[in-house]
Amino acid sequence: MIAAIGAMTSVLAELQSLAGAAIAPSTSQLVPDAVGGADAAKPSFSDALRSALGQVDASISEASTKATAFAAGDKDLPLSDVMVSLEQANLSLQLASGVRDKVVAAYANIMNMQI
Questions:
Q1: Where are the domains of the chain?
Q2: CA–CA separation, 107 and 84 (whole Å)
Q3: How many angstroms separate the CA atoms of 90 and 84, rounded?
Q4: Cβ contacts of residue 32 below 8 Å, gap of 6+?
Q5: pLDDT of the residue at 4
Q6: How far apart are CA 63 and CA 61, in angstroms?
């Protein structure tokens, strides 16, 4: 019986030492978030939306420029590049339209909520 109590005491002491070693990391050991740290300014929704729409506009403008240049007879511009840029512009416009539809649906859903 005394041997069992001694074994339990040693196991308890070992568990307590392990629990003491398992402390939470300090803030200096934590990895900053992927945006660039806690002090970095995070873009607002309107800034992100404006940036995304600017990219869509740039994609459409680039595709239009390539199509116009190809139609004018530019020999240095292969048809495959024109078609790829037109399809990228089409896909980005479809994505923007889908996001717009989701935002409008979310707005309508919020406006229909009971208070």
A1: 44-115
A2: 34
A3: 10
A4: 38
A5: 63
A6: 5
- Distances in Å between the alpha carbon of 32 and those of 29, 36, 41, 81? 9, 7, 14, 41
Q: Is 108 left (phi over 0), alpha (psi -120 to 50) or beta?
A: alpha
Separation CA 40–CA 42 (nearest Å): 6
Q: Per residue of the chain (115 residues), what is the pLDDT tens digit? A: 566 666 777 777 776 666 666 666 566 656 666 545 555 577 788 888 889 999 999 999 999 999 999 999 999 999 999 999 999 999 999 999 999 999 999 999 999 988 7
Half-sphere exposure of 60 (CA within 13 A, CB side): 13
- Upper half-sphere CA count for residue 18 (Cβ side, 13 Å): 6
Q: How many CB atoms lie within 10 A of CB 84?
A: 13
Pick from 87, 82, 85: which is nearest to 71 by CA? 82
32 neighbors 54 (Cβ within 8 angstroms) = no
